[in-house]
Specification:
Layout lengths: L9 H7 L12 H19 L1 H8 E8 L6 E2 L1 H7 L8 E9 L5 E10 L8 E11 L7 E9 L27 H17 L1 H8 E8 L5 E3 L1 H7 L5 E11 L5 E11 L5 E12 L5 E10 L4
Helix pairs in contact: 1-2, 2-3, 5-6, 6-7
Length: 292
């Protein structure tokens, strides 16, 4: 991870290092995506997360900031981050690309400076990336989810930002992924999260569990989510690759514990079309949001 005193020139470097895809061999495209992700992390540490997102994200980017509502679009994200001076960084530990390399996903570990005398605040992230529709030659951030990014995540969202968003309709290219998310939610409501997560997890699915442990495989994932009594959710945003092989959904959820305590949350789920055509999730993560 970059030192605290890294040069703010990392911001400019990141923009210059969005490598054109023309002439890049298929086997190297994953490396290009990881390079873009790491360079953006360097910029976030040196220039700040707000400036980095403003420079490298799509206009309609969706941010899942801990403790805030789902925030869509750069203007709204800018308002959310107005008072945030956090210089966080992250390190990808994995990546996935659609078959046509128009959509990419990275996931890994985050670090932020301590707010007191303790050590760095360690968290996790999932990010989705799209090839810039304007040029077709650069990766741009499409959606990002953080967990445990700061020591204090209880600050209210700026006034004027909606606390909840309307459910997204299953139409167009995103329809199969939105429908999969809704069916996933129905099964969780009817049969419990453990059964639903195991049923809808891809064979190579993985999730971060408590303590930042990465668990892999449908059965292990089912065990991780078995404690809460009920889960309810619905998608409010989605994206998909041009060829429909990879997609993502973002939504709002309410998780209720066995003692009746419920907490509103939000999530980012990555979906992968399987060889037989089925759509199953590859990874999933979320964080808290304000009470309505």
């Amino acid at each position: 991870m970059p030192p605290v005193g890294a040069s703010t020139r990392a911001m400019s470097a990141w923009l210059l290092l969005c490598v054109p895809f023309s002439g890049v061999a298929a086997q190297s495209q994953r490396a290009v995506l990881l390079h873009t992700d790491r360079t953006m992390a360097d910029s976030s540490w040196s220039a700040g997360f707000r400036a980095t997102v403003a420079a490298g994200a799509l206009p309609e980017t969706v941010l899942l900031w801990p403790g805030a509502p789902v925030v869509k679009g750069l203007p709204a994200i800018g308002r959310l981050l107005e008072s945030v001076t956090l210089k966080a960084t992250w390190q990808p530990i994995g990546a996935e690309l659609s078959l046509d390399s128009t959509l990419g996903v990275t996931w890994g570990v985050t670090a932020a400076p301590p707010s007191g005398t303790g050590g760095p605040v360690i968290g996790r992230y999932i990010a989705t990336w799209q090839r810039d529709p304007g040029t077709g030659s650069t990766w741009r951030l499409a959606a990002m989810m953080f967990t445990d990014l700061t020591a204090d995540e209880s600050a209210p969202a700026p006034s004027g930002l909606p606390v909840e968003l309307p459910p997204i309709q299953a139409s167009g290219k995103i329809a199969p992924f939105v429908s999969a998310d809704l069916a996933f939610a129905r099964l969780a409501g009817d049969s419990g999260a453990a059964i639903a997560f195991e049923r809808w997890a891809a064979p190579d699915a993985h999730m971060f569990a408590g303590g930042g442990i990465l668990v892999e495989g449908p059965k292990a994932i089912g065990r991780v989510v078995s404690a809460p009594a009920t889960w309810k959710w619905h998608p409010v945003a989605a994206g998909v690759s041009d060829d429909g092989s990879l997609g993502w959904t973002i939504g709002e959820a309410v998780i209720t514990a066995a003692d009746g305590h419920s907490g509103p949350s939000k999530y980012l789920t990555i979906w992968k079309r399987q060889p037989d055509g089925a759509i199953l999730f590859l990874t999933d993560g979320g964080n808290g949001r304000p009470v309505r």
